[in-house]
Amino acid sequence: MSRDVHIIDHPLVQHKLTLMRRKDTSTKSFRELVHELSALLAYEITREMPMQTIEIETPLEKMQSRVIDGKKVVLASILRAGNGFLDGMLQVIPGARVGHIGLYRDPATLQAVEYYFKMPSGMEERDVIVLDPMLATGNSAVAAVDRLKQTKPRSIRFVCLVTCPQGIKTFHDAHPDVPIYTPAVDRELNEHGYIVPGLGDAGDRIFGTK
Ligand code: URA
Fold first, then answer.
1. Which numbered atom of ligand 1 lies nearest the CA of 81?
2. Which of 53, 82, 81, 83 is nearest to 67 (CA)?
3. Per-residue pLDDT tens for 43-92?
4. For domain 5-207, is the CATH number 3.40.50.2020?
5. Ligand 1 centroid to residue 42 C-alpha, Å
6. 201 pocket-lining for ligand 1 (C-beta < 6 Å)
């Protein structure tokens, strides 16, 4: 199995991520940056999506032309921080369906506990992009993908803003078939389960709840 990690190294992505990491970046700026960055991430993630050729008619003649194959893509947001990716990604993939996975991290065990799960119908014919800004311990990402796999989607990709070696290992030990797309692999997790240097609590920074 492949254990693919795609590092999104585009200068615009790296520049925006640096601005987001700064502790004095305001909630307003952080939110704008996550919006811009997620549109760029969507562009990279969809690069290898399967395509089909259909016949269309231009004003001049008929031609064979390519479109994305299959039913609409699903953006599966791990609540709540994953929602920060939605608006920007929907700008690039406006027909996408949106699913939600509610998990909270038990503060004592750092294990993920599910409280909500809603996906569109016809998952067997859909490609899913799982959204969570921070792949930290990996526990919630593993639990989210465990649950998603029960719906038997055609493919699953995982996207985050920042991860670390431990998060990648935990995730790929459980789901080696699911590629990770990330602009950054940071040094490590601290004793509270935060990525360092990281960018802090992504949910708090997007929603201004600190
Ligand atoms: N969740 C966050 O929002 N930040 C981290 O660093 C780890 C988990």
1. 3
2. 53
3. 999 998 889 999 999 999 999 999 988 788 999 999 999 999 999 999 99
4. yes
5. 21
6. yes
